[in-house]
Design goal:
Oligomer: heterodimer
Shape of chain A: globular
Low-confidence stretches of chain A: none
Number of strands of chain B: 30
CATH architecture of chain B: 7 Propeller
Helix content of chain A: 10-25%
Distance between the termini of chain A: 35 Å
Radius of gyration of chain A: 13 Å
Mean pLDDT of chain B: 97
Low-confidence stretches of chain B: none
Largest interface: A-B, 19 and 13 residues
Largest sheet of chain B: 4 strands, antiparallel
Strand content of chain A: 15-25%
CATH superfamily of chain A: Beta-grasp domain
CATH class of chain B: Mainly Beta
Largest sheet of chain A: 5 strands, mixed
Structural class of chain A: alpha+beta
Number of strands of chain A: 5
Number of helices of chain A: 3
CATH class of chain A: Alpha Beta
CATH architecture of chain A: Roll
Number of helices of chain B: 1
Number of domains of chain B: 1
Strand content of chain B: 35-45%
CATH topology of chain A: Ubiquitin-like (UB roll)
Number of domains of chain A: 1
């Protein structure tokens, strides 16, 4: 189970409060690796309203002012197919989506 | 007595302002979509409870919302504005080719008869339509793929399609305007487009007779006289009486013919309104006096309307989609400022009062007359 923390604007769009929990089996259950892209795919599949809000719809690239953090590390610029840290996959730490420090 | 609902888009959310037909006492609701830039909201003429809103922002992109209960509750609808087919290139500010890139929806134009069919204008310039209430958007590609498209260049605010007029008489006629490509007309429901910029003069481009490249800020039309169009250009207030085939200047003795919005009185197709702004670099009223100018002669002769508007130390701007007129008699006129004020006149512009003074910077104003 993957825990995901969304920023307030995306929680409002998805009509959720608190963390989102995603069931993602992972390699131990015969599925593919739990990567940043896989988590975002699962998140968008569950909440289609989030399509286009974190990644560009066409290129799949992270939106410029969206950040992905976990385990006190900035994973924003990691390749999307990089497996997430073990503690995220184990559900011990959340995968955090947030808006960059770029207010206006 | 009928009522009115004013739809206000701001830099940080949307608001609805409601009143009865006297338009004296107002209720302010919102913010809706707090924190999002709401470039435009617009209601369906066929069903005033149906309202669409465009919310966007640098963090999370573009989201479209729909209300089916007059703005009390909202739900997100589709936001897939993928360009169809060959994306192509336009000119960037430095004159180099640049691929079209979607940024946001600037304008929403619901059709007169069907609440589910709505046109929207995008930055980078493109026209989309939905026939299912906003879930699926389809690009009308002929506009973006017009032979002049590779020569279109953005204005300072981006290459936005900001004006859409669905002709009330000619069923398949659509007008659009793009900064800074100019105005275009389709007579076949968007399958082909004709640049309609003859007579425009723009000192910012080298060839005054160029068929594209003019920075049109806004166009309006009175439904009873569909071949007459009024335009506020970057500089110059213009008029066409032949569906945009030819334009002539009607700026007269305005203190400045630079500005953004232009509106027409619902009860008189020759009464029009502009708000002069000092210049392209000084986006505030001349002399710090916020004055709406009215022409009762379809242009050329203008009178300042100042009663109730600040006449000193006022340095706000009024954006292109931030002025609207209702269909009551006398006509109500509404406009919003970058200072967060929304002013209204309930007497054809003779006098003004603020409905609300301290909203975020106002991006757009529309008004609905309620049964």
């Amino acid at each position: 189970m993957i825990r995901v923390v969304l920023p307030a604007h995306l929680r409002n769009l998805a009509k959720v409060t608190g963390e989102v929990q995603l069931d993602m089996p992972g390699p131990s259950a015969g599925a593919g690796p739990v990567t940043q892209a896989a988590v975002l795919d699962a998140l968008e599949a569950r909440f289609p309203v989030l399509l286009g809000t974190m990644r560009d719809r066409n290129t799949g690239k992270r939106r410029a002012f969206v950040r992905f953090y976990a385990c006190e590390e900035d994973l924003s610029n990691e390749p999307p197919d990089t497996p997430l840290p073990d503690r995220v996959i184990a559900g011990e730490e959340p995968f955090i989506v947030l808006g960059a420090m770029a207010g206006g | 007595m009928s009522g009115v609902r004013v739809l206000v888009g701001t830099k940080k959310g949307a608001f609805t302002l409601t009143s009865d037909g006297k338009r004296d006492k107002w209720t302010v609701d919102g913010p809706f979509f707090g924190g999002w830039e709401v470039y435009h909201l617009n209601g369906s003429p066929a069903d005033p409870d149906r309202i669409y809103a465009s919310a966007s922002g640098g963090w999370f992109g573009q989201v479209m919302h729909r209300s089916d209960d007059g703005g009390k509750t909202w739900n997100p609808v589709g936001n897939d504005f993928t360009y169809t087919g060959d994306v192509g290139e336009h000119l960037w500010y430095d004159g180099t080719p640049r691929p079209w890139e979607f940024k946001r929806i600037w304008h929403i134009e619901p059709t007169r008869d069907d609440p589910d069919t709505v046109y929207v204008g995008a930055e980078d310039a493109a026209l989309y339509v939905t026939n299912d209430g906003g879930h699926k958007w389809t690009e009308l590609t002929a506009l973006r793929q017009h032979e002049t498209g590779p020569r279109w260049q953005p204005g300072a605010g981006g290459m936005c399609l900001h004006t859409i007029i669905l002709d009330p008489v000619h069923k398949d006629r659509i007008y659009v305007a793009i900064s800074a490509a100019g105005a275009f007309r389709s007579d076949d429901g968007g399958q082909s487009w004709l640049p309609i910029n003859k007579g425009l003069r723009s000192g910012e481009i080298p060839d005054q007779d160029s068929e594209v490249g003019h920075c049109v800020h806004h166009i309006t039309q009175h439904p009873s006289r569909p071949d007459t169009l009024f335009m506020q250009k970057h500089w110059d207030v213009m008029r066409s009486d032949d569906a945009g085939a030819n334009w002539r200047e009607i700026s007269g003795e305005l203190p400045s013919d630079f500005g953004f919005p232009i509106a027409v009185n619902a009860n008189d197709p020759e009464t029009i309104y502009v708000v002069p702004i000092k210049s392209d670099s000084e986006h505030f009223p001349p002399d710090g006096k916020l004055r709406v100018y009215r022409s009762r002669t379809g242009g050329d002769d203008w009178e300042p309307l100042t009663k109730g508007l600040p006449q000193s130390d006022c340095y706000v701007n009024i954006y292109r989609d931030a002025m609207a007129t209702d269909t009551l008699d006398p006509c109500g006129i509404y406009f919003g400022t970058t200072g967060g004020q929304v002013y209204r006149s309930a007497d054809d512009g003779d006098s003004w009062k603020p409905i609300v003074r301290d909203l975020p910077a106002v991006l757009s104003v529309e008004v609905q007359v309620l049964p």
